[in-house]
């Protein structure tokens, strides 16, 4: 029986982190657009951002995906626009605040690239070794790598901007991810699986596209199914895709969402405790 390995990683706080604290970046962009009110400080923005993010998450879970599917909501762009506007309105205590033109778009662009994020120092060496492992190991007949993230579809753009090679496979729950309004611009040719290529990350599965956030089992099931789909597109595949023994491993920093979510879905899990939250005392 063929043996295959699927190893996936959480994105934010596992593979990459903000280049500067998010409130500092918000304040910097605000100043560059002429919003110089003394109340616009990282401290006030941090509190205001948390309030706005929590409120939007409650009102429109998973970037309003259910409403998006009914044609009643605009998806991540509308979601983040509301968070940004509410953040500054809360910070300035001006509910009807009108932000300078282009400011919202600038912030969204910042957090879709290396302007907003940096890789952790151990990430590139990790994927360098994984690429070698894919080629030279003999334990598995194939190795598939992925990112599984509670996020919108900017993750792949962030990873590419940080120098990682990213495959084209995305989630496809309910509707093709290419039909959901989001940030990633694709065409039909780009959305077609082309089998396993020499990528650092073969597939990106986000909660917005998959339909549920971790720790829900659905997002892990979608990742497992898409790994099968990648193999089915691999022209060199010479074995029955229904007769594969999979080893599935997920790596992440959140105990409940990543570790427990993966184990409850029948995967193996590795908790990457970057903040040393679970260090013995």
TrEMBL record:
Cited SUPFAM superfamilies? HAD-like (SSF56784)
- What GO cellular component entries does it have? nucleus
InterPro entries cross-referenced by the UniProt entry: HAD-like_hydrolase_domain (IPR051828), HAD-like_sf (IPR036412), HAD-SF_hydro_IA_REG-2-like_cap (IPR044924), HAD_sf (IPR023214)
Protein name listed in UniProt: Haloacid dehalogenase-like hydrolase
Q: Which organism is it from?
A: Talaromyces stipitatus (strain ATCC 10500 / CBS 375.48 / QM 6759 / NRRL 1006)
């Amino acid at each position: 029986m063929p043996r295959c390995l699927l190893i996936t990683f959480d994105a934010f706080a596992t593979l990459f982190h903000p280049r500067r604290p998010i409130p500092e970046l918000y304040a910097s962009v605000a100043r560059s657009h002429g919003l110089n009110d003394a109340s616009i400080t990282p401290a006030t923005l941090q509190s205001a951002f948390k309030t706005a993010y929590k409120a939007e998450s409650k009102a429109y879970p998973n970037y309003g995906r259910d409403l998006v599917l009914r044609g009643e909501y605009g998806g991540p762009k509308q979601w983040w626009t509301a968070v940004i506007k509410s953040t500054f309105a809360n910070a300035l205590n001006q509910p009807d605040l009108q932000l300078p033109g282009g400011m919202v778009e600038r912030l969204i662009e910042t957090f879709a690239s290396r302007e907003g994020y940096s890789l952790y120092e151990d990430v590139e060496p990790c994927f360098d070794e994984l690429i070698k492992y894919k080629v030279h190991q003999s334990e598995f007949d194939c190795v598939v790598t992925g990112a599984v993230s509670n996020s919108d579809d900017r993750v792949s753009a962030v990873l590419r901007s940080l120098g990682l090679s990213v495959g084209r496979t995305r989630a496809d729950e309910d509707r093709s991810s290419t039909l959901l309004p989001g940030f990633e611009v694709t065409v039909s040719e780009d959305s077609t699986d082309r089998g396993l290529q020499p990528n650092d990350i073969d597939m990106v599965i986000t909660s917005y596209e998959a339909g549920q956030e971790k720790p829900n089992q659905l997002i892990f099931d979608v990742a497992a199914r898409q790994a099968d789909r990648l193999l089915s597109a691999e022209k060199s595949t010479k074995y029955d895709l229904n007769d594969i023994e999979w080893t599935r491993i997920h790596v992440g920093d959140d105990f409940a969402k990543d570790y427990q979510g993966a184990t409850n879905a029948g995967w193996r899990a590795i908790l990457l405790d970057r903040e040393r939250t679970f260090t013995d005392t």
